[in-house]
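Example record for the data management plan.
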Amino acid sequence: MSNLALAEKLFKDMLSAQINPSVYTLTAMVKVYGKCGQSAQAWELVEAMPERFSVKPTVVMYTCLISCMLRHKKHHDAYAAFKWVCDRCAPDGQCVSTVLAGLCDGRMWDEIVEMIEEGTKRRKPPLKFKDENLNQALNAMITAGQLSAARRAFHLLQDTKFEVLPNIKRRLHLENSSIQ
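Corresponding structural encoding:
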């Protein structure tokens, strides 16, 4: 019996015994579906939680769902899910870091710029970006030859507390310019 089949059997047995699943059990099921490449089933479970189990999905569940999509190279689906999540709750730093890394992996440069713009200029409260992740994203863009996208992202971050690393700044050819 596969891990997925075993997890589904145990879950069904719980429900048959009229044991209401906890947030932890439901999160574990989302993770199992995700690790087995079953993002559609994970998504269905998350969507059904409020009505079927009286459980409101948490940002951790959403992050697991997005992570499973990214693990299986469904970058566009993961970004769409992230935007959907942003309309429903405040993503935490882990969720933002997961999505940003996934967008870099998927070479989705315009979406990274869009995420930075949305997260710093439009969204209240702003997204919880980490300097480390933003520097990695800028570095990935530069390495991929996407200087225009990297510069757009950098300019969007000008009015924030983001600290660009000196080597990134040099690679953006900004060290001698008035852009600091």
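Summary line stored alongside the record: The chain has ten helices and no strands.
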